[in-house]
Design goal:
about 325 residues; alpha/beta; seven-stranded mixed sheet; five-stranded mixed sheet; 10 helices; binds zinc ion
């Protein structure tokens, strides 16, 4: 396999381009280049690293205008931020494809209006000052992207050409509503986006609905159902959107499932120790995150993690909840 300055061949004529991303987690984003018949990019990184992506393509004699399509694994800003610039430079020759359920991210830089987030934060019991800082912080994420329109929506089972390969789209909701994986059946390799990562425990995030402060879709359940579908394909190697490739999927998924069971048990015991809001549970579940910048960076994933577990526990009737004022309180039934 060939190694270039900005890219690395991970399979014959498929190249991984690592693009920096601020913050420690989840680390640099991997964009994948499929040159050939239908030159394709799978994810393109944030708007800040467009220049680096351009240099990486140039190592292969490819300009942005030579790309036929950009496939976005899911709508989080670090995966599509550079897309609009590429489309513009190609004079709209490049077509952008995403699952329709993540299209809202592409158009607006978020999955729900800031009002919906603000109401949710209040319901979760996050203190006023922290909420103020969080909404300011949320805005900074929007600088990662330049909104754009998709040209094509991808659905489960669709067959697409990437470079010289044929790939099958797998709809794998959980990390986001419209997360997809791409399976190259002949090569037996799978591109899971952020659905499966090697170096961090995965994040099934809250699935917001406009104007609804208690999201109802069970992200954790949908996520683990998606993992089961991926596992059934038995891919030999997975090339995720962050970090290194994965060749032992069953060991990794066993560790995910172990963490899941432990976390649910811990949340039940925290709730048993007294009525609490999601915010209070999150602070006790992650005592190592004390405050300051670290808390600001981690607070949303913390809240999302607790809330999505609690949804499943409530569904199983292992815990109950009631609304007190503008907060939701959880307790043992
Ligand atoms: Zn993501």
């Amino acid at each position: 396999m060939k190694q270039f300055k900005f890219s690395k061949e991970i399979y014959p004529n498929i190249f991984k381009i690592s693009l920096p991303l601020f913050g420690e987690k989840p680390g640099p984003i991997n964009s994948y280049l499929f040159p050939g018949k239908c030159p394709t990019l799978l994810d393109v990184g944030s708007a800040f690293t467009t220049g680096k992506l351009k240099k990486a393509l140039w190592e292969h004699g490819i300009h942005f205008s030579d790309i036929d399509q950009i496939i976005i694994s899911h709508g989080h800003p670090d995966h599509y931020g550079a897309a609009r610039k590429i489309v513009k430079e190609s004079k709209s020759k490049v077509k952008v494809a995403i699952h329709s359920e993540d299209d809202v991210w592409l158009n607006t830089g978020s999955d729900a209006p800031s009002r919906t987030y603000a109401d949710f934060y209040k319901l979760m019991g996050i203190p006023f000052t922290l909420r103020q800082i969080m909404s300011f912080f949320d805005k900074s994420y929007e600088t990662l992207v330049r909104p754009l329109q998709a040209d094509l929506f991808l659905n489960d089972g669709d067959l697409i050409t990437l470079g010289n390969y044929q790939g099958k789209i797998l709809s794998t909701p959980g990390h986001s509503k419209g997360s997809i994986c791409i399976f190259l059946e002949e090569a037996n390799i799978l591109f899971p986006g952020d659905t499966i990562l090697n170096h961090i425990t995965p994040n099934p995030f809250v699935m917001f609905e406009k104007e609804i402060d208690s999201p109802w879709r069970l992200s954790q359940k949908e996520y683990y159902d998606s993992l089961a579908r991926i596992e059934a394909l038995s891919p030999a190697v997975l090339h995720p959107a962050h970090g290194d490739s994965i060749s032992d999927l069953s060991t990794l998924l066993a560790s995910y499932r172990k963490t899941y069971a432990e976390r649910q048990a811990r949340i039940i015991s925290l709730i048993a120790s007294g009525e609490q809001t999601v915010y209070q549970i999150a602070r006790r579940l992650f005592p190592e995150i004390k405050g300051g910048m670290r808390l600001l960076v981690e607070i949303y994933p913390m809240i999302s993690e607790v809330y999505t577990h609690i949804q499943v526990l409530e569904e199983k009737k292992e815990i109950s909840s009631k609304k007190v004022g503008r907060e939701r309180i959880f307790f043992s039934p």
